[in-house]
Amino acid sequence: MTQVELARKGMASGHAERVARNEGLPVETVLEGMCDGKIVIPANSLRLNIEPCGIGKGVSTKVNANIGTSSDSGSLDTEMEKARVCVQYKADTVMDLSTGGDIAGIRRAILASCPLPLGTVPIYEAGIEAVERRGAIVSMTADDLFATIERQAEDGVDFMTVHCGVTSRSLEHLRRRTRLTNVVSRGGAFLVGWIVHHGRENPLYEQYDRLLEIARKYDITLSLGDGMRPGSIGDASDSCQIDELLTMAELVERARKADVQVMVEGPGHVPLDQIVANVQLEKRVCSGAPFYVLGPLVTDIAAGYDHIAGAIGGAIAASVGADFLCYVTPSEHLSLPDVADVRDGIIASRIAAHAADIVKGVKGAADWDRAMSIARRELDWKEQARLSLDPGRSERVHSRFGSEGATCSMCGPYCAMKLVEEYLGVTMPRC
Questions:
Q1: For position 404, what pLDDT does the model report?
Q2: Can you tell me the distance from the alpha carbon of 378 to that of 415, in angstroms, rounded to the nearest whole number?
């Protein structure tokens, strides 16, 4: 039985029990969320070495890190090092978006060694194989695509981005509306080309029941990809994006009826004043399905610093209900991320996720900040490093210039808290 089937019978899988322990929640709360489709636990039934995480209502905001090769760069060694960094800096999941080299070999190596839930975008591999065999992405057949999906499922992939909402109707919206950046989703672009070339409907939409059968067989979580997401703030919240979201709402209900876990992917570039409405709309029309957002990036001009633009949007989105942040790295829009980019992207998104969890009232979130405040007041540098998101960086920065006594090199003997305690006779309560 799938995890959802077990939950409907009042039975908890081992993954559900572990998620409940990690979140500090009664297991019944997790099971109720799974039954309602408001919590998902991506975990292929064939995976043995996995650290499961819950994504959705009432649990902490999760962070995904994308890795993977391109046709220009990357190798098995580089991707394995990126996967190691994902574990070290505590991403909750990882996605292999490889489009170059030994795609299947890289995926299988990550699955064998990395305990994080792994996601993929199967149409990448299917499209590239079509190029290699027949010379063009559009030569891919529906059977090619579903064979790739099943092959990745057999490898143990835990969740898959599938652009089921890119339909013939989507193309009509795209043709009627002048977008600044048209389609920026790679999977979405593959399907747009396929639909136009063949004059037929998207096979992922037309044969959605076939997809559900595979997902249910392996207990894979479907992530409904936003192929029509805005690639600039000028395109945010337009008819292309909203029409796709309405199609996703239909597909969410069909997945739930099939006992398949499902989440919805959200927009990429969204100005600050539209983020709340975007989250509320997804939650409303998709009946509370977990919302997985890329950023969102709140400006288009942060090239080289897009991890910051994405963290700003992610914090706002998560604070009002988004459940899962896909990190953005400094190299977004510029190049394939390297290992340092992966680290910086994870940390930026983890800051955003934690800031939102404080607002959401997630158990233990505010306590973490209180403990850090006490450590700072007491000038306990080891404890500050231990409590930080990146202990190694905390220690390196603190020791950079040296310091006078117990204080840091910023204020030295003029540390405000030290002065208050020593000269004004005010001793703060110890906790």
A1: 58
A2: 11
- Euclidean distance between CA atoms 362 and 349, whole angstroms: 17
The conformational region for residue 197 under phi > 0 = left, psi -120 to 50 = alpha, else beta, is alpha
| DSSP structure string for 78-98 | HHHHHHHHHHHTT-SEEEE--
**Domain over 41-360 is classified CATH 3.20.20.540:** yes
Residue stretches of the chain with pLDDT short of 50: 429-431
Under the phi-then-psi rule, with left for phi > 0, alpha for psi from -120 to 50, and beta for the rest, what region is 178? beta
Residue owning tokens 């977990």: 290
| Cα-Cα-Cα-Cα dihedral sign, residues 26, 30, 35, 38 | positive
Which among 198, 192, 200, 194 is positioned nearest to 171, based on CA atoms?
192
Return the exposure string of 224-251: e unless at least 16 CB atoms fall within 10 Å of the residue's CB, then b.
bbbbbbbbbbebbbbebbebbbebbbeb
Joined tokens for residue 162: 């599938």
Where in the chain are the domains? 41-360, 365-423
Cα–Cα–Cα angle for 307, 313, 316, nearest 5°? 135
pTM above 0.85, yes or no: yes
Cα 75 from Cα 161, distance rounded (Å): 22
The mean of the pLDDT values for the chain is 95
